[in-house]
Amino acid sequence: MSFFNKFFSQEKKEDLDKGLEKTKTNFLGKLTKAVAGKSTVDEEVLDELEQVLISSDVGLDTTVKIIERIEERVARDKYLGTGELNEILRDEIVQLLAENNTEDIEDFTLPSAARPVVIMVVGVNGVGKTTTIGKLAWQYKNQGKKVVLGAGDTFRAAAVDQLKIWSERVGCDFFSKGMHTDPAAVAYETVQYAQQHDCDVAIIDTAGRLHTKINLMKELTKIRRSISKSMEGAPHEVLLVLDATTGQNAIEQARHFTEATEVSALALTKLDGTAKGGVAIGISDIFKVPIKYIGVGEAIDKLQVFNKRAFVDSLFEQ
Fold it and tell me: What number of CA atoms fall less than 13 Å from residue 281's CA on the CB side?
């Protein structure tokens, strides 16, 4: 039984392959050129590989780490052919993701046995945060779960309206106190609503504006504290949504948000629209936060759980 048959349906595999098509074309094209005419992995090949990884938005620090690991294998094995480089690089990336707490899950499992499970979602405007919330709610609704969406981004009318539209599309509950209300109060009362209405999941949106770092810190801390007061042990997950098309800027966003609150999982959106999918590797390595979901298309069912082996295998598949 192949890896994909065991963990992925053919449809999911095709969605993932299509979603990574631009990244794969960019990455494999550069990798092929790097080893062209070379039979062994020497210093020149490693220098070329370093440039390939950096230009694929893996990030400098993570690239250096990968190159050092391959150098160790070259020194240990004495002779390493360029034909083996793809497999070695693939293995090192999978190992790196494993070290950074990224676990392979087969489906949209809830992050806690608590009821309701409270998920706080953070990220800047435009990354696909509200859309990700809607798609996640749809997945849980399909499992027979009762879901409520909390409109905690009270700074923008469009954010509240968009979340309400998603709740109607999914067929789940919606909680809002309207515009310009205290986001922490919305979060608190969303959890209360979930408890009173026997919801399995409460997903709470937060303001997407990256204010000054200090204001972001204060606001997210306040919201998280409010959720904890409403239900002990909550939030059970803080999900940071990042836009893959922004490449290295996504790493900067992750830096701000991981400093502002305890991010426990990542969702990487819009992979189908970019050649910068390599940023997934760098973000996971730098922040030691597991990638949990990836967006591989606009349709409601094109949010996938992230599986490191499937991701890397698809990236390297000719």
Answer: 29
